[in-house]
């Protein structure tokens, strides 16, 4: 109601209903609105705004002019909450940081609030704002509840913060993904295509994935004699019809969520782990790129794309293929030996193409941390996963398919773009690298500057850390209907084609390639799935940070080795016993970024995920 009412006032539309007229009369009485003839105006002393919560502050979004938004600390909200419409009175005290004071709150409807109990009060889980309400019922400190924002009645008792199993609900709730907990759609998926598909079941396709994988998006086969790479991708678009209920739900989710020890799939498991998964020794529908190579010039001569039926002859883990590439074949069957021989030859080919690719793109010495949880959902261990030969083999094959797919769409498509970083970010990067004692200078281009920095870093012990700084200096990759190239990979054209089981972008691209048509709402699709991608990343980090906090709470007074990640705010990250654990240092004295120090954990708040430690001087 309030949004429509304030839009009417701004647009001089005086057709108010009875409820709206009551609000207008109240605003006139309080001199918040003025009226001249038939025109209403907002008194310049006041601002009508919508409250929007950011990470560390609230934003008063001016409904008439977005350039007049005001930041407000959480403790100055006067009872307002995220999504409320408010009247704020301007404050012009030049010595005060406060620019507005909330004097009236409009709340169009009751909301659910996720809160915890402490000292007989409710605090919001996301921002730790104390609600203006004293708890009458008997709750334990640390109890997590969903309450009604109007009367603070309990809607659902989630559990106690001491129970690690509440973490999943908290993260899904905070990032608006509770839909993941709903029962999966019942589907009747059959391989009943009446159109003739290319039969590739005679080819020795194999899948290479993490050992725990259940959703196998892609399979590969290399024909050495003809110099053809076949990249077979699960034909998800055959089973997920556009605008069906299943499709709308997949769009809403936009990708699978990979939590430690658990996957919350974009598609029902009947599809993601069965009918669309390229499982070993089972015939499956695939959308196949047949890529003809010019190995002499390290280029792609041509490619064909068609619907096919394949049968993956073997599924392998990255570890198994790494051993094969090192010449350690373990035990094997005759068929496996044939596949291994082919994979080794394919690796040599992709390694050469990779070397040429990196003349324009970049190779970062980054690694991924995999959190392992026990049966009680507590953090048990951390595995560091580095990019190995098997990862690079698969990656190059997928890059071939993604590049070729991007070339086959119309001028308006669905591209994965990564724009060149701004000059300001690169100059800051140079300053940061110099502060580490590595002498670097700006070069004539951004590409040359990054290569120069990486070459200098090779001769230091900080190459991994400097790669991290380079990554932070880059813009964020996203989806776009316009082809703006991919700076990081060095490609003039790039799309996501190879993971339709877990990414909605790839599913849309498959449909476009099959129909040669672009959805009318392609810009909306690109914007939405880009936002979803960032949100899901934040959701996973929130979940993981709470697991780290639980671990740290059991290790108060224990010693850890950390490195400084923020030289202004005194933030650090562990690198030995529990790599990736983030800490706030309470006696920080301005050490240089990436300085390594020993710390003692002092206190932990599982709800806020804050781990406080002191440096041992």
TrEMBL record:
Annotated Pfam families: RNB
Query: Which keywords does this chain's UniProt record carry?
Result: Exonuclease, Hydrolase, Nuclease
In this protein, which residues make up the domain named RNB?
197-519
Source domain of life is Bacteria
Q: Which InterPro entries match?
A: NA-bd_OB-fold (IPR012340), RNase_II/R (IPR001900), RNase_II/R_CS (IPR022966), RNR_Ribonuclease (IPR050180)
Q: What is this protein called?
A: Ribonuclease R
